[in-house]
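Subject: for your reference before the review

Hello V.,

The reviewers asked for a structural picture of the protein, and I figured it would be easier to keep everything in one thread rather than splitting it across files. Below is the amino acid sequence we used in the manuscript, unchanged from the supplementary table.
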Amino acid sequence: MAKNLLEQLREMTVVVADSGDIQAIEAYKPRDTTTNPSLITAAAKMPQYQGMVDDTLAGARETLGKDATATQVVALAFDRLAVALGLKILDIVPGRVSTEVDARLSYDTEASIVKARELIAQYEAQGASRERVLIKIASTWEGIQAAAVLEKEGIHCNLTLLFGIHQAIACAENGITLISPFVGRILDWYKKDTGRDSYPPAEDPGVVSVTSIYNYYKNFGHKTEVMGASFRNIGEITELAGCDLLTISPALLGELQSTEGVLERKLDPQKAAGMSIEKITVDKEAFDRMHAENRMATDKLSEGIAGFTKALETLEEILATRLTAVEARLAS
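And here is what came back from the structure prediction:
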């Protein structure tokens, strides 16, 4: 019986689910799962998670006491909700879950370190090993430096919102566990910038970017894993077959599963090792210069941080409304 594209992809790439939906994760059985504020916000709106949300809010209020403000309770509840969802995911997947540091801390190295330690402490208090958790941090220079410190403490990191080779090299040179270059968002920028409606999969700017990062890493022996993310279509995914990991939405996982055909391996570490590639050293000066010269990376990084911040604020509003209802019920 012929294998579908998803089955073939799993033979050469670790498939990760990009979702906070427990049912979808159970259906596709990925090795790892990634979450972000937008996905957690979507999950918090689903009826099946209302019990978890309410219990988390009640627990946060009990921890902080009656004198704590609603803002303080909601802040604690957000972190606990992210961890609670992560723990549920870890009950399903055999590998790791990625949990994101507050995007509003993206340019604050010390605050990012503190928040990451708090999240790991919550996981470990519930019996989860830090080896099964990746802390997601935006790929700003400050975020990369925070991750470098955390990696030395055995807190493994997933650097997200990555759009340029300078970000990727800085991550590798600082010993980061994993990066998530955003394929679809790069495509979005180029389509808008050029006025083109589409690109052939092999010429997709996001595909080209991840391919160049992958080849650079394998050529110079970097251990940092490459996990392509943010896909718009399965053509982008099939062009990156062979990448270390790919994190894919449930909708595209379903499309891959329902599609038959021969899947060719496009990324290969042995081929990359034999390529002639110029080595680049990225210190802060080089990072800032290369980032400023890359309009796409500059635009998409700031846009991504703003988007995750908005999702956080939306979730905080949802939690504040739920807190009022929970406290009214407890008082009655």
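For the response letter, the relevant points are probably these. The chain is about 55% helix and 10% strand. The beta strands are 14-18, 32-34, 97-100, 133-138, 157-162, 178-181, 225-228, 245-248.

Happy to draft the paragraph if you're swamped.

O.
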